[in-house]
Inverse folding.
């Protein structure tokens, strides 16, 4: 199918399912990179403030997307409120851990990593990785650095989804464009790919290719 549009009309909108493939790709990358049992992205409903499962990989992937929790629920709510990433190898030691909310998802983790989705000071949601592979070979600081990098990419994706939602409501201009040092982010990824393992490099490249496809042809 050609991308050319000679009618003078705007190109047709992609389906919301296609738009959300980028967020799904991010949680799938996280699942494999960390050898985790589950990975998820919550977005904040701008009207209600609720935390909404937007993308899930691993445990709960089939049932959880769209599930809502009240603002401030559990570790996700704490991370959104504080704006600080968190690593807990034993969630039982974290008072904010919501046992009942976790049980409602059908999966109660032992360990958790979480990082806020933030863009230009705005907190859009949170990304979690549950029960990552343990062992002496893992470096908690490096894991948190990589999770934060993925959460940044997810925040950019969430911002794109919000802009497309504005267009769906008929606002041709959409929300104000957000500025972000994307070039610096891509440069960091590019310089580290050669040293990464083959599996990790393939997953990251898949993520970037998906982003390129969703953004469409250059103008």
């Amino acid at each position: 199918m050609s991308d050319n549009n000679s009618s003078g009309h705007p190109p047709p909108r992609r389906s919301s399912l296609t738009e959300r493939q980028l967020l799904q790709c991010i949680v799938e990358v996280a699942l494999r990179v960390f050898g985790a049992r589950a990975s998820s992205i919550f977005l904040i409903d701008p009207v209600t403030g609720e935390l909404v499962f937007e993308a899930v990989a691993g445990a709960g992937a089939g049932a959880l997307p769209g599930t809502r929790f009240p603002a401030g629920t559990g570790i996700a709510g704490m991370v959104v409120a504080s704006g600080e990433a968190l690593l807990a190898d034993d969630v039982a030691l974290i008072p904010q851990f919501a046992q009942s909310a976790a049980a409602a998802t059908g999966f109660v983790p032992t360990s958790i990593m979480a990082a806020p989705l933030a863009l230009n000071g705005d907190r859009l949601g949170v990304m979690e990785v549950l029960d990552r592979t343990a062992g002496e070979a893992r470096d908690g600081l490096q894991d948190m650095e990589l999770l934060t990098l993925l959460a940044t990419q997810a925040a950019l994706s969430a911002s794109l989804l919000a802009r497309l939602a504005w267009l769906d409501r008929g606002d041709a201009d959409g929300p104000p464009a957000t500025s972000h040092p994307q070039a610096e982010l891509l440069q960091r990824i590019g310089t580290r790919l050669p040293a990464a393992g083959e599996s990790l490099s393939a997953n990251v490249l898949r993520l970037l290719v998906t982003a390129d496809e969703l953004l469409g042809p250059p103008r």
About this structure: The mean pLDDT is 76. Strands lie at 38-44, 51-58, 68-69, 86-88, 112-119, 122-130. DSSP finds seven helices and six strands in the chain.
